[in-house]
Request: fold
Amino acid sequence: MIRIGIVDDHAIVRTGLRQLLSENVDMRVAGEAANGREALELARGGEVDVLLMDISMPDQSGVDALAAIKARFPALPVLILSGFPEATYATSLMRQGASGYLNKECDPDEIAAAIRTVARGRRYVSPALAELLADDLAGASSDRPAHEALSDRELQVFLRLARGETVGDMAKAMFLSVKTVSTYRSRVMEKLKLETNSDLTYYALKNGLIQ
Reply:
């Protein structure tokens, strides 16, 4: 029996996923969470074999939650189920340790198949993600958006800045010094060729990285 933790800030989505997964005799929803902090608590409880997690959540984004969960529980599979298309986040989150990435528009049967795959310790690569990874290997990255060149930590800082967080708030939340966060901010600005936090927010909105 695969014990699943569902992480999404919308109760109706969690209910729908619970009903969907209940149709599979080898799966059981063992817990739910509405934000990144609660997701970490689910992982800490040790009662789930797979986390099925959205990345757009209040309190703590799924990007930050994934980093925190993998730092503490590296063996726990985290399958991302997001409304954002694969091109937006998938390759970055796979680098951070996600076991797979699905768009919420995927076929429901694909969710169950992906859960079974990651529960066996393997990574699930959807056809859309496979195409992105193949393009990367082929060197076809010249037309890819600039944010895909950001490191995992730079992406975290970038998304927090785009949502309006201050450097001081980020330093506390990420357990880093203000100087270190400022350095990451400078790298992000340089790589994206931007000058102000407003530019960052506009870039994030334009590229569908925040809503």
